[in-house]
Structures are given as C-alpha cells and as structure tokens.
Amino acid sequence: MEESHVDFYGADRSFVTNYRPVSLTSVVCKQMEHVIASYLRQVWVKNDWLYDGQHGFRPGYSCESQVIMVCQGIADSLDNRDKIDAIIVGFSKAFDLVPLGRLLTKIANSSVDSMVVVWIREFLLRSTQSITAGGQLSEEVRVTSGVPQGSVLGLLLFIACLNDIWRNMESTIRLSADNCVIYIKIINNEDMKILQKVLDRLGELAVENAMKINPFKSKAVRFTRARVKGPLNYSLMDTLIPERSSCKYLGIILRSDLSWADHVIYIVNKAWKALRIRMRILKKRNSYSQSFVYVSLVRPILECGTACWDLYREGKNNCVRLAPEESCQICTELGNSGVAQKVITYMCPLQSLLWRTVVEGYKRQFTTATLSEQSRP
Fold this sequence. Notes:
This protein is of the alpha+beta class and 377 residues long. Helix content is 48%, strand content 15%. The strands form six sheets. It has a four-stranded antiparallel beta sheet, sandwiched between helices. Strands 1-2 form a two-stranded antiparallel sheet. Strands 4-7 form a two-stranded antiparallel sheet. Strand 11 and strand 12 (239-240) form a beta hairpin. The longest helix is centred in the last third of the chain and has 38 residues, at 337-374. It is globular, with a radius of gyration of 24 Å.
C-alpha cells in the first residue's frame, strides 16, 4: 500500500470532488520508478513513438516551448491575413480516470520489454488507498483507474495514454500533459466543418479511453486582426463551447488579435499584489530579507513566459517597468527610511538586471536573427 496525501485544488473545500490523492511512495519504489522511466523514455525516443505535439513531462520540452509553437503558428497565419479558430479543451480529472487496461495495452504495443510491462501492471493494479478522517482509518480500497499523482512514473504513463489523440485528425493538436489546444486555418465554411468533425472525433476518443471532457471549461477563440468577426458555433459532447475574445493557456493570456496587452496587465497586477502583501509582512525585516523576497517571489512573476510574449510597444515596456520601480516606493512607505534606503540601493541593480533580461534579451535575439539572415547567400 502506498501512502497518499490529499491535495485541495478546487474553490470550495466543502465538496469532496475538489480533493485528489497525491501518492507518497517509498524511496526504494521511487528509485525503481526512475529506472523504469529512464528505460521507457529511451525506447520511445529511439522508436519515435511519442507524439511530437506533446510537450509535457519530456526532456527538452516545456510549457514555454508549447506556447511558443502555438503562438508562432497563429502569428504566421495572422501575418498572411488569415484567421485561426482555436479550441482550448478542458479535461476533468484526467489523471484519475486513465483506464489501466488500455494504458497497459498501449505500452505493450510500443516495443517495450514484456517484463517492464509486467512491472508497470503490478505497480498500477496492486495499489490500494485508504483515508484517515477524525482519527479513524478507513478500509483499504483497490485503485481501478488513474495513474498515481506524485509518483515519478505517473506523469510519463499519462502522456502515453494520450499519445494517440492526434490520429485521424485534420487539424493541429498540441498538448502539454492534459492541456490541449486544437486549431485550424479558416478559409471557408468547409474548414469550420472540418474542425467540428475533429471535435466530434475527440469526443469519441474520450469515451473510448474513459476520459471526461468538460465543455464548460473549454473555450473557443477566433484569432484574426479583422474588426468584424463571425460567431463561433462549435460544440463538444453535444454542448456548445463558450466563445471568448481571449483565453489563458499555460499561464499566458492569448488575445484574439495576438496582442499582449491583457497579459501584461495581468502579470503586473499579480506582481504588484504579491509585492505589497509580502513587503508588508516583512516590514520589520532587514534589507536583505526584503530584497530576497522580491527576487525569489515577485520577480519570477514578471519573467514567467517571457520567451513567449514580447514588449515591442513603449506603453507595455513602461507598464512592466512600473512594478520594480514601485517596489522601492513600498519600502519607502514602510516607515524606516534607513532600511528603505538600503533596500532601494540593493534592489536597483536587480531591477536593471531584470529589465535587461526582458528587453535586451529580445534585442539580442533580433540582432542574431538579422545577422544570420543577412549572412545567407
């Protein structure tokens, strides 16, 4: 039996459905999981088995690489004055509903050694869980579906379960674990019908794999620079998908015209909120503690995903620059002018360094790309 910790992830703590178990396996088990996971990656990379559009839990891939690929594909179409219809698909309890029988069949058909398949089968099917509430321990219940969250091997097994989602699809599908986006270039009404067929096929795959799609968590966005936009009437699981002018995907807000104005406002407000809360808590601490909190907890908010979005407008530059500058003002408002002056002195180089990494990084990338383009024959 593996020990489990219950993690809360919903909005209301009174609902049991807002909790999920996180497995805490032993050290020996984790070491064996690392060995099996390393072997699976080696075999799947060698046989080119994993879907290239899956960027979750894979070496050399990340959420940033996923968003970059999505934004680049959309931007190329917008530059050609085309329009893109995209569907952000929302799965419900994706990790908990993985059918173990179908998962083991997929792994066995991926050229993996049979002994490894047997080990994975025993690892999944022999798991039991129990709950402690009010000092009372419930009876052990065998786990019949899902991959153990919190384990080393569970995440890799999950992407193996979704590995065939792209087959027989006539549109672009990109995944980062269970974060799925489907988009297609719209030239005429036939393209819209094709996208609807893809959504219907996705619904069928979800039923076949015992996965649950929540149409209300899904979103439909039309990316275009045209002022007049037609309505979107896409449905998923016989439910109309809500239409949005912008959507949040992997922490980045994508607007229908691919402008970053909404995202800049979002991260600045988030950084400002985190800054004020933490600085007020540490108002009696020394300058090093305050500056350390800023660098470790506030600055990453401004830097998150900077490889995906750019600051090509002066107004957005000033907006992002405002948060580090106001951090000094907060320190001044705390009352101790001597400590505040030390914090300002310590943080100013960090702020300028932040600005160089965000702004001058794009300048270097642009200069390098320009020089390489000019050097071509």
